[in-house]
Amino acid sequence: MNKTLNELLHPLNMQGDANINITGIQFDSRKITAGILFVAISGYESDGHKFIHSAIQNGAVAIIGEKDLQEKLSVPYVRVRDSREALSILANHFYDKPHSKHKMIGITGTNGKTTTSYLIHHILNHHGKSADRLGTVEYVINGNMRESSLTTPDAILLQQMLHESEDEYVVMEVSSHGLDQYRVHGPMFDYAVFTNLSHEHLDYHKDLEGYYLAKKRLFRCLKNEGKGIVGTYSSWGDRLQEELAEELIPSLSFGQTKGGESIYLKSYQTFPDVKLVIDDNGEEHIIKLNIQGEHNVYNALGSYICAREIGLSPKEVIEGLETFEAVPGRFEEVSIENGAKAFIDYAHTPDGLQYALKTAKECIERNLYHIFGFRAKRDPFKRAIMVEVSQNISDFVFLTLDDLNGTDKALMLAELRELSKPYENIVVIDDRTEAIAYVLSLLKNGDGMIITGKGPENYAEEYRYKTRNDKETILEIMQEKLLF
Ligand SMILES: CC(=O)N[C@H]1[C@@H](OP(=O)(O)OP(=O)(O)OC[C@H]2O[C@@H](n3ccc(=O)[nH]c3=O)[C@H](O)[C@@H]2O)O[C@H](CO)[C@@H](O)[C@@H]1O[C@H](C)C(=O)N[C@@H](C)C(=O)N[C@H](CCC(=O)O)C(=O)O
Ligand SMILES: Nc1ncnc2c1ncn2[C@@H]1O[C@H](COP(=O)(O)OP(=O)(O)OP(=O)(O)O)[C@@H](O)[C@H]1O
């Protein structure tokens, strides 16, 4: 693809040299090749403006930045108000506004984004509608899988994938970081789904208000005829719906019914199966899910309403929901012997943990053993709350390591010991795989073990057992009878 500098700057209301041919856009100087426009970003770890010279040496033909430069460069420099915002607009125009050829569904919220995106994607695919899915687990474009590095890809990769996609629908998770950093921008979504909001990422957003406002930005990215679908089972959803109404942004709600909704949840059960009774314009429908937990009642309900808005019939949506099998590593049962049960789950927030542990407790008759840790360099303020949640629901709690993200192991272990101090039923076992082996050795008929935090992800640390993830560890220990 090619554009002139002038063509690219036009949407920013700026002028550039029409003779400079731009062959691509890049925000990382290390990835620059000849003909590229480099966008310098003042980042959280370093400052892209420091790498302008290196970008030019690598072939950058023009630079965009948000700072005044003291020196004159050998290529044009354009100063903008906000480099990330400019990058987003530039990427959108470079790839010819690719969102306009798709029906775009953006899903935001603290928990349930991945599950909801899988459900909607499955419902669409099940009825022969081609759809992409972008999120934490993977990016699926034109039926091909790509590894996911961020829940919401950076603005360039996102626009590039939307451009490459020949699928009719795009179902994507939109994280608060993605919204705050303009990875998505402008009126690009046909539907914006909000699942819920609770304590998470306060290291980044500072407080829940800031976190909420970042999430709310998704609704400013709705196309003119776009619609919001708002989960009101967390109190933030009620506020969002009221504010959307004030701003004349059309929206539907799901969660607790307030009356007047054309589709609402009449009742549900979570055990032994998850079943929802939905009233859809006066007709009652019963839906039986293969995924467990009260949280999935709400994920299914949000997906139902979104799919109905897209134009599928109740029968089609129900068939889609009932044939959906599982999301990798989200309340996934791993088969073990002796009548006990083992689950792995991606819960990494107090709220998510509460749902996951309650679901596990419902599935077993005796004691629940919970193994988990905390990712370093991620919201430290949620840790004590998560320990309390676990301590309240589980019978035995084992704190262990999660990803250290380059930080000191001894520091994390010291924190785990400190967090466990007030409680009698909490044990710290440094090595995650040893913690799993130990708990497996304790399990009796009717007991349950749940390991949370990593879900399907591979370990980032080296542990005693050379397995790649929690599931493999359980299976290998069971197979080899490597019990203590
Ligand atoms: C805190 C955060 O979100 N950081 C993101 C941000 O990094 P940044 O732009 O601030 O990068 P930086 O390292 O400070 O560098 C500044 C600039 O200098 C450039 N640079 C740097 C070095 C060099 O030699 N040359 C050069 O040009 C960098 O490319 C960058 O443009 O922008 C980058 C590009 O989009 C992201 O990769 C990066 O995500 C980091 C890796 C990250 O871990 N983010 C997480 C927290 C995140 O975004 N998570 C959410 C999901 C959260 C959830 O689970 O709900 C997600 O969407 O994945
Ligand atoms: N609607 C929900 N409400 C509360 N907790 C939920 C909900 N849906 C899922 N969870 C819990 O959160 C965990 C993560 O679910 P999911 O991956 O769908 O959320 P997410 O928002 O995509 O999180 P991430 O972006 O970090 O992947 C699940 O394993 C479950 O424990």
TrEMBL record:
Domain Mur ligase central: 107-306
Entry-linked PANTHER family: MUR LIGASE FAMILY MEMBER, UDP-N-ACETYLMURAMOYL-L-ALANYL-D-GLUTAMATE--2,6-DIAMINOPIMELATE LIGASE MURE HOMOLOG, CHLOROPLASTIC
Cofactor requirements of the protein: Mg(2+)
Keywords of the record: ATP-binding, Cell cycle, Cell division, Cell shape, Cell wall biogenesis/degradation, Cytoplasm, Ligase, Magnesium, Nucleotide-binding, Peptidoglycan synthesis
Residue ranges of every copy of the Mur ligase C-terminal domain listed in the record: 329-455
Pfam family, one: Mur_ligase_M
Record-stated family: Belongs to the MurCDEF family. MurE subfamily.
Pathway: Cell wall biogenesis; peptidoglycan biosynthesis
Modified residue annotations for N6-carboxylysine: 215
Record localization: Cytoplasm
Gene: murE
GO molecular function, a single term: UDP-N-acetylmuramoylalanyl-D-glutamate-2,6-diaminopimelate ligase activity
Species assigned in the record: Halalkalibacter kiskunsagensis
Positions bound to ATP: 109-115
Post-translational modification: Carboxylation is probably crucial for Mg(2+) binding and, consequently, for the gamma-phosphate positioning of ATP.
E.C. code: 6.3.2.-
Record-given protein name: UDP-N-acetylmuramyl-tripeptide synthetase
Location, primary (coarse class): cytoplasm
Source domain of life: Bacteria
Binding site for UDP-N-acetyl-alpha-D-muramoyl-L-alanyl-D-glutamate: 29, 151-152, 175, 181, 183
Function recorded in the entry: Catalyzes the addition of an amino acid to the nucleotide precursor UDP-N-acetylmuramoyl-L-alanyl-D-glutamate (UMAG) in the biosynthesis of bacterial cell-wall peptidoglycan.
The keyword Ribonucleoprotein is annotated on this UniProt entry: no
Membrane recorded as keyword: no
Residue span(s) of domain Mur ligase N-terminal catalytic: 22-95
InterPro entries per UniProt: Folylpolyglutamate_synth_CS, Mur-like_cat_sf, Mur_ligase_C, Mur_ligase_C_dom_sf, Mur_ligase_cen, Mur_ligase_N, MurE/MurF_N, UDP-N-AcMur-Glu-dNH2Pim_ligase
